[in-house]
Amino acid sequence: MKFEKEEFLRETERILEAEYATDVTHAQKRELYNALSRAVMGMCYPDWRASRSDGRKRCGYFSAEFLMGRAIYNNLLNLGVLEDCREALASVGRDLGEFEEVEDAALGNGGLGRLAACYLEAAASCKIPLDGYGIRYRYGLFRQTFEGGYQHEEGDDWLKWGDPWSVCVERDSVIVSFADQKVRAVPYDMPIFGYRNGAVGTLRLWSSEAVQPFDFASFNEMRGEIKAAENFAATKICDVLYPNDNTMVGKILRLRQQYFLVSASLQDIVRKEKEEGRDLRTLYERRCFQLNDTHPVIAIPELLRLLRAEGLSFDEAFGVCTRVFNFTNHTIMAEALEKWDALALSDLLPEVYEQIVACQQRLEREDVDPQKLFIIRDNVVHMANLAIYVSSKVNGVAEIHTNILKTETFRDWYAQYPEKFVNITNGITPRRWLLLNNPALAALIDEKIGTSWHTDLKQLRKLEPYLSDMVAPFKAIKGENKKKLAAYIKEHEGVDIPPHFIFDVQVKRLHEYKRQLLNALSILYFYFGIKDGTIAEFPPTAFIFGAKAAPGYYMAKAVIKLINEIAALVNGDEEVAPYLRVVFVQNYNVSYAEKIVCAADVSEQISLAGMEASGTGNMKFMLNGTVTLGTMDGANVEICEEAGRENNYIFGATVEEVAAIRRFYCPSEMTEQDPRLKRALTALIDGTLSDETGSLKKLYESLTLGHMPDRYLVIYDFADYVRVKEEALRDFGTDEYYLKCLKNLAGAGKFSADRSVSEYAELVWKI
Ligand SMILES: *Cc1c(COP(=O)(O)O)cnc(C)c1O
Q1: Does 630 sit in the ligand 1 pocket, CB within 6 Å?
Q2: Are residues 633 and 521 in the same domain?
Q3: How far apart are the CA of 111 and the centre of ligand 1, in A?
Q4: Ligand 1 centre and the CA of 653: distance in Å?
Q5: How many domains does the chain have?
Q6: Can you give the residue range of the structural domain that contains 78?
Q7: CA 504 to CA 165: how far, in whole Å?
Q8: What's the CA-to-centroid distance between 590 and ligand 1, angstroms?
């Protein structure tokens, strides 16, 4: 894109005048944000049009979540005009930094949605024709605040700033039919800019509206109430994002959302094929689809239904489906694998259900053991099984995870169809997660090895000869980032964190398997040890947490309360003030992550081995030169392969050990044997921490009582965790420590989303 400062300012002024009757000096932030964004959008239309109609086979990435974050800075960066825009605005007395207040587009929960966002950006940057298809939720993931240490949720009205980076494409709207309801799906297209290459992908988000536009004539005849009710039901479909991560809530509204997304997308695609006079029997030559987890798997029977309505036989339609669909699994947790009651599904979507039954019957005709391989059994539809049966390729998201899929979760399917299973380790975009969030470190790297690493992250290996020289400037850059984060935390959370403290960070969704509780107990252990003198000269450390808990997830919310109570205890104690600080930041999201990731000294990735499919937070920290304190789980394993296990801090039971431990495990016995652990645990119930609702007591009991106490082996791993954590904190500050950080940076190349999407294009999409 060619950027002319004068033209850009003229266009911004023109829009401000036409839309808001104001000028650049007097415009409110919101007005300036919308006008500026629209001005830039205007310059990109030719490239967007050209990218869409280049005649190549395209992949549709179907996902219930896209965690895009803030668009403006990333778009300007990728268009290569970030600094030009900053200067242009400065020349008229405005500051690009004003838009830091713009709400994130948080149309996702966590890693799965963020992965989808990284992949769209990476595909555009690699000129791979990938389009995202999702839902334009009216409210994104809730806004989180703390009240009395408890999580409080508010609606996330992300559209209040306007949505200048989308265009509504009315002419592409389609009707989506349920047994009891018809709604109109209206697409909003968002351009996805490749990094300085002129390529533009598209994220198409569907919004639901009433079939009939609001009818004033009938309203005047007093039938308005009925119309209004219809309108309400239609818009309700995309009202809210389900705030669950790694758990399934079997609500019919969720099924409606899923069907709405895939039916609208597939109808739109089939219609275009027909307009172009194509034979749908060869659809796979021009299209394929990636199903991001089981949420969009209902696309399979929907495409069967649509193709059969176009005159294809079941076998023909099935053949097309086996060549267009591919499935990514993101979790091995049973409670997250989607299952639907067959009756409820057939009531809501009878024709779609018929196609699922036909798939089950086809499976039965193949010579397989019906006890092992099934789609419908005991009146339950197993969406993951449907996805595996029909998809061309099924992938896990890290080596260890794919191995677990093959040997445990989908063992029987793997035995029958080994050729379907592939691994594609997750990745992150180095544009948002280094160039944008840590420009000083990016510039230091540029200075050493040039800029080709921006689009070829493996080049970071070329830093290896310079790592010793980089220690001093790296320290200075990290120090500045820490100062900025400390100031931001002071302003937003009201907590003082001295920048010279070690920043030990755990930010990610709150879930028992991620074990924020293990981290919390270690802080209590350090606190009591410092108080009673058994821990001497503790290295000054700030423990920084960020996480949202699903509103219905009691134990997760209890952990938030616990950590906030520990923060109150520790931060209010003058005696430990020289050594300890604890803060739980509110409303952790992509924009907060950008600030935190570049300022961390230790990255906590401490899930129970076997539970975290991959993790991508771990990769963001690594890319910013942070050592991992973690278990041998998910992509941590590959991080150690790439950067050296000796350059990270690894502890805990391995995935091979976990099953055996569970057989003889007695957490209360282990607690009795470790007085330090016992003391930390007792603080949950002896009044040390205030527990107005009894939730800390429940946490304590989940570790010690019941049929399966301490499911996630917090107590089992505690001693090893504390030992390795102390080692990490005591190593901090030396040149050897910073060399470890830099070796992680130099080894981060594998974790570029460019590598991931290129593997999908080659192994899966055949693009
Ligand atoms: C990257 C990211 C995640 C995923 O973090 P994990 O540690 O991999 O679970 C979640 N939320 C946000 C806002 C992120 O940016």
Answers
A1: no
A2: yes
A3: 5
A4: 23
A5: 2
A6: 5-426
A7: 36
A8: 8
Judge if the beta carbon of residue 194 lies within 6 A of ligand 1: no
Assess whether the C-beta atom of 616 lies below 6 angstroms from ligand 1: yes
CATH number at residue 568: 3.40.50.2000
State the Cα–Cα distance between residues 650 and 470, nearest whole angstrom: 25
Longest dimension (CA), the chain: 81
The answer to whether residues 503 and 642 belong to one domain is yes
Together in a domain, 214 and 238:
yes
Query: 110 φ, ψ to 5°?
Result: -160, -130
Cβ–ligand 1 contact at 676 (below 6 Å)? no
Q: Is 118 a domain residue?
A: yes
Residue 661 lies in a domain: no
Asked whether residue 553 is domain-assigned, the answer is yes
User: Does residue 440 sit in the same domain as residue 422?
Assistant: no
Give me the DSSP letters along 430-449.
TIIIIIIT-HHHHHHHHHHH
Distance 77 CA to ligand 1 centre (A): 22
Residues 516 and 420 in one domain: no
Per-residue pLDDT tens over the stretch 595-648: 999 999 999 999 999 999 999 999 999 999 999 999 999 999 999 999 999 999
Residues 6+ apart with CB under 8 A from 748: 457, 460, 619, 622, 623, 642, 643
75-128 per-position pLDDT tens digit: 999 999 999 999 999 999 999 999 999 999 999 999 999 999 999 999 999 999
Active-site residue set: 330, 508-509, 514, 616, 620
Its pTM surpasses 0.85: yes
CB of 614 sitting under 6 A from ligand 1: no
